[in-house]
Amino acid sequence: MDEIKTFADLDLSPEVMDALKKMGVKRPTTIQQKAIPLMMDNVSVIAKAPTGTGKTFAFGIPILEYLNLDSKLVQALILCPTRELALQITTELKGLAKYIKGFRAAALIGGQSMRLQAEKCQKKPQVIVATPGRLIDMVQRKLVDISDIYTLVLDEADEMLKMGFINDIRKIMAMTPKDKQIALFSATMPREIQDITWQFMQDAAEIDVMPKAEDHPDIDQYVVDCPEKDKLKTIVRIMAKEDLTKVIVFCNTKVTTSKVGEMLTAAGISARVLHGDIGQGTRNKVMDQYRAGKFDVLVATDVVARGIDVDDIEAIFNYDIPKENELYLHRIGRTARAGKSGKAFSLVAYLDRPRMEEIIRYTKIDPVPYEV
Ligand code: ADP
Ligand code: MG
Questions:
Q1: Which of these three, 145, 177, 208, is where a domain ends?
Q2: CATH code of the domain covering residue 235
Q3: Whose CA is nearest to atom 18 of ligand 1?
Q4: What is the pLDDT of residues 271-324, one digit of tens each?
Q5: pLDDT tens digits, residue range 151-184?
Q6: Both 163 and 296 in a single domain?
Q7: What is the total count of domains within the chain?
């Protein structure tokens, strides 16, 4: 197979090409390059790819390409763990289908009136995006029929299993045609997912996408040259200039986080510190306050970065340049989540330069110099 580099190589319909153009989407991400041709060939896929690398279009585009718009049957079912995600996927699909006349999608999620959702189903959507519990409920009440679908997507499969949806997924497998295409997307592949794939997806193609900075299309990455002693001042200035009120400042050590936290407070910026020595109870409390916007800056070490799943973080700062290349990707992945864009600023002092250059080589990013 020739290498795919552009959306044109993927042989998409003019309607989808126009929508992508309209959205300013130029180059397919790695997961899109790999998953779209397979799914358009009716192959089932088990795809592991980091968060924020464009998985929604990876399954959304192939689905839109084969839909029979004249049919009144549900043809594709997308399962995901949360209501927010279901709504977000539905919105993204509608954007992608902007020029496809007669496209209908519905989100079926808990917490919304069943009557309202039954009305949505009467409009005969070809695509349903749902959380598992609500979907099963509606199928059992015969408010929706999923017995003719071509494609079942399990999005964020690891999260769905973590939330205890395993039995629901098994039930939905049984409610849908045996020979359907299944596309499973996940950021991680824990044991329980392997059980599912072994049971239901023996013929699937496996895709494993390694973290790459070029696959984070929505993060603007900058390097800021500044002397070590001016790093804090520089962060404060950038926050004012960019009007940022929800950011993370990453440091390499606990000692530095405490120092930076104090300096920010002294500079009149509301900040809290999180590192590995802070107990889980306090951590949860700090995270709740951060989510609720009670303070602007979270100062953190990498140890706690993994647990930070907040959707509207506007930017991250590397106060210290991370000691490992991989950590750079984990850090920037905290921003630009849930369909939002984000910024990453790396503060590079003279002694940081070799480390930053190594990260750039390894991650193949192309950060832009930032003038404060
Ligand atoms: P994931 O599901 O892998 O976490 P998403 O599908 O939510 O990622 O995509 C993250 C963001 O990137 C979304 O805002 C989406 O619109 C955007 N996006 C997706 N594919 C591309 C692309 N090829 N080029 C630019 N932006 C893209
Ligand atoms: Mg996703």
A1: 208
A2: 3.40.50.300
A3: 54
A4: 999 988 888 788 888 988 999 999 999 999 987 776 677 878 899 999 999 998
A5: 999 999 998 998 899 999 999 999 999 999 999 9
A6: no
A7: 2
* Residue numbers of the domain that contains 252: 216-369
Q: Is the CB of 343 under 6 A from ligand 1?
A: no
Q: What contacts 9, CB < 8 A, 6 or more positions away?
A: 2
The rounded Å distance from CA 252 to ligand 2 centre is: 29
DSSP secondary structure letters along 191-252: HHHHHHHHHH-TTPEEEEPPP-GGG-TTEEEEEEE--GGGHHHHHHHHHHHHT--SEEEE-S
Residues 203 and 309 in one domain: no
Token representation of residue 53: 């690398």
**Residue 184 shares a structural domain with residue 40:** yes
Give the end of a domain, one of 208, 234, 256: 208
- Write out the two tokens for 134: 């609500």
Task: Specify the ligand 1 atom closest to the Cα of 338.
Answer: 7
- State residue 93 phi and psi, 5-degree precision: -65, -40
Mean pLDDT along residues 210-235: 87
Q: CB of 201 within 8 A of CB of 184? A: yes
